[in-house]
């Protein structure tokens, strides 16, 4: 909005906002790595059991369960969004006074947080079922056979839940920046 | 922060903020009803099948599946939070200039959005499984037997997903209010 580059030394509040913008930039990079790692580790999960009958080869892939496919898609979308958002994040480091773009970031960050949480929680519900099973519904714990499949899918949740925490921090920092500015 | 009550007629920006605060208040009431309805309709789901053997009575309750228990807990927590947040929402209608409390609301709204999304998505993943089953993992579709149980649990998701949309709107409006004020 204001085309003038404000220098931190002249305006202490702008200096604080620039510091927040730099932290914002690095948190976004952390979140990119976390979501990308989640998507890749889930997307490459594929276990074949060492024994097989004449007709059936026992094999577990991530896309046997639609929820895991959704998890990979959600993480990929969030990861791509984060790469694009880096441009706005850099512009906030240079022009610490802009506020319209901060509002845009808050809105998209919130939507992406919802998408990421949705994918991670749905996958967590299925992973829990795979580990524990459910006697009432006769759903058996498949982890007894597909051990490494279960470990891989459980592990890939970590990146997503980490990125969720980062997103909450990002929204918090954007809100503080918006309230500080005057 | 500013102890002075600003009147909308004197300051057009404060007037717009007051309008936003009134909408915020009503959206919160809508979200309370939605999450409460979700929690109650899921929490009272209990189906007994009309046939039974000598030893087993076929019965499906929501807490047979831990994910549904989490769904009820998450919706109840969010609903309780929303009732408490009405106090801050009312204070924003009266004092449309306050900004610290708006930042507090954004942060808590974001955290509650994450909790609600998490509960709703995990429950949706299980409901999907109950409807479709999964042949690869030998998890059978229980909806063929427990018809009304499945309809009830599927229906109770609607309130939660509606409340998620309301939360995203609330965060958006808070962000716009913060950026408007000067």
TrEMBL record, chains A, B:
- Lipid bilayer topology: Multi-pass membrane protein
A GO cellular component annotated for this chain's UniProt record is: plasma membrane
Query: Which UniProt keywords are present, listed alphabetically?
Result: Cell membrane, Membrane, Transmembrane, Transmembrane helix
UniProt domain Casparian strip membrane protein: residue ranges: 18-165
Asked if the keyword Membrane belongs to this entry, the reply reads yes
Q: Which Pfam families match?
A: CASP_dom
In terms of InterPro entries, this protein maps to:
CASP/CASPL, CASP_dom, CASPL
Q: Which residues cross the membrane?
A: 21-42, 68-91, 103-130, 157-178
Out of the domains of life, which is the source?
Answer: Eukaryota
Protein location: Cell membrane
Single Gene Ontology BP annotation: cell wall modification
Q: Which family does it belong to?
A: Belongs to the Casparian strip membrane proteins (CASP) family.
How does this protein assemble? Homodimer and heterodimers.
Question: What name is this protein filed under?
Answer: CASP-like protein
